[in-house]
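This section describes the prediction task in plain terms. A model, or a person checking by hand, is given the sequence of a single protein chain and must write out its three-dimensional structure as a string of tokens. No templates, partner chains or ligands are provided. The sample shown here is typical of the held-out split.
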Amino acid sequence: MAFIDEIKAKAKSNKKTVILPESMDRRTFEAAAEILAEDIANLIIIGTDEEVAKNSEGLDISKATIINPNTYEKTQEYINGFYELRKAKGMTPEEAEKTLLSDYMYYACMMVKMGDGDGIVSGACHSTANTLRPSLQIIKTAPGTKLVSAFFVMVVPDCEYGEDGVFVFGDCGLVQNPNPEELAAIAGSSAASFKQLVGKEPVVALLSHSSMGSAKHDDVTKVVEATKIAKEEYPQFAIDGELQADAAMVPSIGASKAPNSNVAGKANVLIFPDLDAGNIGYKLVQRLGKAEAYGPMCQGIAKPVNDLSRGCSAKDIVGVIAITAVQAQNS
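The expected answer:
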């Protein structure tokens, strides 16, 4: 069974409620129609009657719950709750009302905070900052979280590497230039995400332009230090570095470049040294390797909140909704 089909089956086994705040985007409704037809998750779509009617024309979303913040009976409760959360930061009741009624992502986060939804998918027409800022202000980080980061699930067709072509790439969407401690935290979170979603043991490679000391540079040193920290912090996972991408994935090259590594040639979780490398890497694999790219998925928030690439398709949104529903089963 293909990865996304397994995810959909998991989501169906214990249905959760996912909130979609981007009613201004046609792709949201195309994805919603498919999710509802396949009975993968319960959906709440936030928007006015006009927005929903315009952008869902010709699509069957009759099983979705449509909530108009201007008329919904619990809106005042959400406004009051938001004010209480933010008043120490100087927010007034008037500002709380204006924010929730004008920014559906804030409204969605209050719904999750108040227990009226299990997760959120946004970002098709909003920046990552506009998706994550409300999440961190309202839902906040999960207990014990050292760093909120992002990952992609990459599904590469006809690929002998990784877990039958399935990989987790981190961080490709959020942390710009992680220091060694942050890079180690990304490695640990990404390993846990792989295990939760793929159901297999993660094999984690911290990537570099160097393999086991083949090059000397401050950028290499950062990855070496991060690997040391990650091994100490997450002994339950197979983690190694620094490794070049081919040494991480290809058994023969791994054996040649890093013969003593328990990860080289077997990696299914690839940790990039910075956001430039991660973003470029996932897009090359997606476009040239014709891979399915699901994300950026967030890790470290108390409830599942997942971002989308603004270049995403409705099919991509379906996949992220299904993954969000599965994450919600364990949050």
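For orientation: The chain has two domains: 3-140+301-328, 149-288.
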